[in-house]
Each structure stands twice: as C-alpha cells, then as structure tokens.
User: What shape does this take?
Amino acid sequence: MQPIRLTLLCLAACLAACAAPTAPTVVSAPRPPAPARPSVPPPAEVVATPQAPSVYFSPGDAEVPPAAPLLDQMAEELRADRLRRLVLHAHTDHLGSKEYCLALSEKWASLVEAALVRRGVRGTQILIRARGRELAPACDSEACRSSWRRVELVLQP
Assistant: This one.
C-alpha cells in the first residue's frame, strides 16, 4: 500500500507543477551598437549682445564710467514723461561667488540710478533688477567677461 501512496503523491505533484502557469519566455534580439558620436568642437564663447543701451563697468568699479551722453538722453526722456519707467538690469561676469556678484550688480545699478537722479529723474521712475552672474556664461576671454559687466537701461512705455 505504501508504494501506491508514493506513486499517487508523485503523480499529484507532477500534475500540480504542470498546471501552474508559467511566465512566457521573451527572447529579444541583441541591440545594435550605438552609432559613434561625431566629434563636435566646443562651442565658441558667448559674448553678450545686449538689446538695450548699457553702461559698462570694469571689475570692482565704484563709479559710473563716462557714459554721460547715454545717461543725459535717458534722463531727458524720463523728465519729459514722468509716467515712463526705466528698468536697470544689472549683470556681472561669472567670476566670484553668487552673493558677491549679486551685491556688485546691485551696487552698479545703484550708481547708475544715482547718476540719473542727479540729472533730474525721479527715483520712483527707476526700478532695479540686479541679476549678478545669473545669466553670464563661464568664459575665458576678457572680451566675453567685460561684455557681461553692465547695467542695461530698458525704457518702459
């Protein structure tokens, strides 16, 4: 009686194993090798080309450079229409910490604002947007860096 039990037990185990669903086996084709990337030269340095008239500064400047004709013209336009606003977008190059560059751009914008106020513009017509090095690329040439050390004068309608 013992062999019959053992046989039935083995038969039940085999049937249970056969009845269990199995996950389908997926055979995928080997992936083709990735195409070789062409050698691309590094991009040329980005030199800022501001759309608005700008006052440019040298590193560490504490005075408005001689941009009197530009400031005179802006002051004249703002005095003629007291409802117009001027936004000063102040930028620096990428050299220095984020905090240093932001403080420097605020200082430069304040210097331009003070020069305009001395020319008769109301302080309420001027809005400062200090950006620091926020937009400046990391560049190696002095021409590139000096193009970012500026305060743009953007007249609003």
